[in-house]
Amino acid sequence: MIKVQNINFSYQKSDKIIDDLSFDVPKNSIFGFLGANGSGKTTAIRLLLNLCKPNSGEILIQNKKIALNYIELYKKIGTLIEDPTYYGHLSGRDNLKLLAKFYEVDKHRIDEVLDLVGLLYAKDKTANKYSLGMKQRLGIASSILHNPDILILDEPLNGLDPKGIAQIRELFFKFQEEKKTVFISSHQLNEIENTCSDVCIIDKGHQLFTGKIKELKSQLTSGESYKITCNKVDQVKLILSTKFKIKSLINSDSELTFSLEEKENVPLLVKELVNADIQIFEIVKIESNLEDLYLTLTK
Amino acid sequence: MISSIYTSFVSETQKVKGTFTFWFTIMGSLLIPFIYFLIYFFRFENFVPPKDINPWDIFIQGNLKSIAFILFPLHVILTIAINLNIEHRANSWKKLFVLPVKRESIYIGKLLFLLFQVGVSLIIFTLSILIFGYLLGFIHSELNFSEYPPKLLQFLKSIIRLFIAVLGIFSIQYVLGLFVKNIIIPISLGVFLTIVATIIVQGWEHSIYFPYAFPMYFFLNSNQLAVIDTHYGLTISEITSFTTFIIVNILGVIMFKLKRIS
Predict the structure, then answer these.
(1) Which pTM was predicted?
(2) Which residues partner with A211 through β-bridges?
(3) ipTM of this model?
(4) Which of A30, A189, B197, B208 could form a disulfide with B213 if both were Cys (CB 3.0 to 4.6 A apart)?
């Protein structure tokens, strides 16, 4: 759906903002674009939208070069770039009315999208009086006004409360059900993990990983991690290091965290510990979250 | 292209709804005619015309010269700056540039709207002079405003020439306002250049090529070159103003197309 091929961008020759960035956004996916502040996310989005021209490389959206077909493609893309854009002296409804003219959208659609983002009750209030979260919702409403096939949103969850985040997340899922593609840049890793199927992680303008979150997990973690709570921790540690292939081992007074290469070893380990008269209070599998993976990747 | 320019123009009319720029257009245009009205109203005995003299000539010329020298250029400078500041304040370029229209349409739509706004100012100015004139004639019949008709054709011709004379300033301020985020910069530069114009227009022969001086020739007819009629029925400064408008806007469109959102 979106194909970024070896793009490079810098304001000055010595200062590369985007360094040979390539990734594919699959159709009908919710794609997370991750990176620390200043990693080049917003610049990459501007390049995606033809607001800046790359020094080299190519960007294709729906198999068309954005640089040559931007007007046609803008009809199919909804955007939110950094802070939401709104005219503070106009009401939320009037703000959308301005855009509706350009997209040739019926007026009833305005109320429909305001309802979708939970802003219908405040449609006649001037945007200056909106809270941060309401402004963000207005920004999202303006990006979906023309029912685009692709949404490109830069930090869309900024300023939203937990209820707002859940509501917008549902909206993204609804979009996915409607066979649309959602591209979200964010540094809220939890939200990306809960929302996105695919991610691209960049650091200093350079791509570190692109693919499914599952693939990232299997790439960065060999085996599976477990935590055991028991008595005789030192004895367990000894059994683990002598009889099982463990990747890492961290211990405290009553807990041990370790990685086993094969999950078939878990019942064997339990048997060994019971035979050694060790009391097991709890044994749980630890899932690596996106934050751990992100930190490992950008270390 | 035409339809997207029209859309852009219509959206501009909606953007100014309830803003200062809307009231500025109306109040700014009424100011001088209202002051003239007050002066005539309270000191009417000083303005009773000799027999067989049309009082409208002095009344209209007085109004025109008062705005042309400095107030109308300043009005244009402020109108453009205040209007473009709506975009800068909303940080809306990034949104405007991803609309499914060419950037030229946005540029031209905005330009046409501002020209319309300046045109409306002149229409309000013209009508208010006529209304105040007739009102004075009604209140103080000795001023003879009811006895003579205003020379409308000549008046309209002057208004159109004033409009053309201000196009040079208009284009420079427009392009400046589009690219400079800080509203203070185009306003101060415009005011500074207008002040420079008030000085050079009185003695420097080449001031006829200085855009900020063009409207001033309505007030000051000392520079012979400036008032020479060409075969187009316009003065050199008016033709230069129109040419400046075309050249600056061609450059402006090119720059606007290349404007990078950073």
Answers:
(1) 0.83
(2) A199
(3) 0.83
(4) B197
